[in-house]
Amino acid sequence: MIYPEPRYLPGGDRYILVEFGNEMNLELNFMAQGLAAAIAEARIAGVIETAPCFASMLVHYEPELIGFDDLTTELAKLVAGLGPSDALELESRLWYFPAVYLDPWTRACVDDYIAKIAPKTPDWDLMVELNGLRDTDDFVRVHSGTEYWVASLGFWPGLPFMMALDPRAKMTAPKYNPPRTWTPGGAIGLGGASTAIYPEALPGGYQIFARTPVPIWDRARRFAAFEGSICLFRPGDRVRFVPCSVAEFEAIEREVIDGTYQYNMVGYGKFSVALYKSWTASLGTGRGS
Amino acid sequence: MSFAVIKPGLETSVQDWPGRYGYWNQGFPPSGPMDSWSFRLANLLVGNPAGAPGLECQYMGPTIRFDDQTIFSVTGADMQPTLDGAPVPLWESVTAQPGQVLAMTFAKLGTRAYVAVAGGIEVAPWLGSRATFHKAGIGGMGGYALKAGQTVPTGEPAPEAVAGRRVKPEARPAIATDRRWEIEVVPGPNDDWIDAEGHHRFLSADWKLSGKSDRTGFRLDGPDWTSTEKAINKAPEHGSLPSNIIDQGYPLGAINLAGQTPIILVNDGPSMGGFINPYTVPQAAFWKLAQSKPGETYRFKAVTVAQAQAMARSLSALCAEASITQA
Fold this sequence. Notes:
The structure holds two protein chains of two kinds.
Chain A: E1 2-11, E2 15-21, H1 26-42, E3 47-52, E4 56-61, H2 68-80, E5 89-91, E6 94-101, H3 104-116, H4 123-130, H5 136-143, E7 148-153, E8 160-164, E9 187-191, E10 194-197, E11 207-211, E12 238-243, H6 246-258, E13 264-266, E14 270-272, H7 273-282
Parallel strand pairs in A: 6-12
Antiparallel strand pairs in A: 1-2, 2-4, 3-4, 5-14, 6-11, 6-13, 7-8, 7-12, 8-10, 9-10, 9-11
Chain B: E1 2-7, E2 10-15, H1 36-45, E3 54-58, E4 63-66, E5 70-78, E6 82-83, E7 86-87, E8 93-96, E9 101-103, E10 109-117, E11 151-153, E12 165-167, E13 180-187, H2 196-204, E14 207-209, E15 217-221, H3 229-232, E16 244-249, E17 254-258, E18 261-265, E19 272-280, H4 286-291, E20 297-302, H5 305-318, E21 324-326
Parallel strand pairs in B: 13-20
Antiparallel strand pairs in B: 1-4, 1-11, 2-3, 3-10, 4-9, 5-8, 5-10, 6-7, 6-9, 12-21, 13-19, 14-15, 14-20, 15-18, 16-19, 17-18, 17-19
């Protein structure tokens, strides 16, 4: 649900978590991103930075400049001023990412976890089992059959937290217990209902089932697609995964290494919330085919 | 001006304070010194601004050779520093002559020592800060910990950089000698996911700092957690385990519950993720995390937001010129 009033939760002496609701939908992400933008515009003295995510937003503040109660009052005022999201029409880039699904690298990582850390159902079998799918091919079809909305960046520089825009492709999974100590760089995973790409070899908690050779962060700023930034994505971007073979993966990997890889991005699209809502309202409840 | 790295020590890194602020929403952690109390005083001793770039040494300190006459100071953990073999007093500004060698060994008391040089370390800022985030290869000396053979450039000393300045004993952090630490925590942001017994167990148990701890997170070994209804009956997009929540921003210092393992998220930690944070360690208690060793014991003490903010004020007051005397 979306709460009638957001909850203002303390995080130690210098953070407030503003929680707008307890589910995952585009509306909640607009509230989080909208409040972050409103805070940046209001230039509240003592606010150092914000980190919006799916259904909440973290504020980092300097308590010597503004107290918890005063800041909550200011935030509540900004929340009240947020306009309805239906009117929003956003610039939204669409990125196509080649990905090997059911790939040997994430499989080896999962096998290593099972052997060394804890027994579990292998990740892609678990995805099939928990989401009422026929088999792993069905899983690949469903996961690659939607655009993903980049709701926020975090966990690691440039890592996108994404949600499936097509409600028929929404899947869920538990997070690892305990988390993995490593994940192959470029692995694609899902935890809760969020899909992410691991920018590098990192610890992680999502179920993993695919891998892309295309970098999403670039310390050396080698690729024009990053437009001078270190992180490829911005919130409001969309991503589509295009299943490819191991041989194609390796060919693209070579282009990435020699710097000739061309990112596949479509830049003319606008994302209309009103059109999106009317489209989702017209859908049935099945997975589609 | 500069110094040469003869032995790098164990992940000795350039840090500044408060570190890389402003990029949490892209996933960049602040980094910076874990014990900013000792770090700030090290800088003030040598006439630098409190946040100037200096060295953080962990467990085993470096050996460096000064290329120029340099005022420096060593604070924090006791890594038994010597200058050309003669003991160097901690918490005091000292003059090194060109060619003299500062050698540090293992931390006899505490875990992290700080070395400040007058003028600070001069490396290029990266997203506004010199702090090293070495897991990502960002900031500091080429993105990583110090390496043997490197020349580390240092800046122009301030006129007030003189030897013989000393931090008053009462202004120094008291590093535990009995391997036990009382760490303050503020309940929240996700404290209502843990039931009353779970809170009582957390606050009354001995927690052991795991060896699987570093500047991204401090893992704790202790009793299991139990949760409220909220953690169990929830929308599936949270993930099905009790500690799973829809991905959210993490406060620095959050006690992050991944499954049953609590991990305190520290200076190089993740900015977001999908596990609950029932408690948060306030900034003013970070120096204790910094100075504790794996195998040592934590007891947690709940404080309010107002109390945690008062602790931060008291700490800032100590990190000031008034804490320093001229010998």
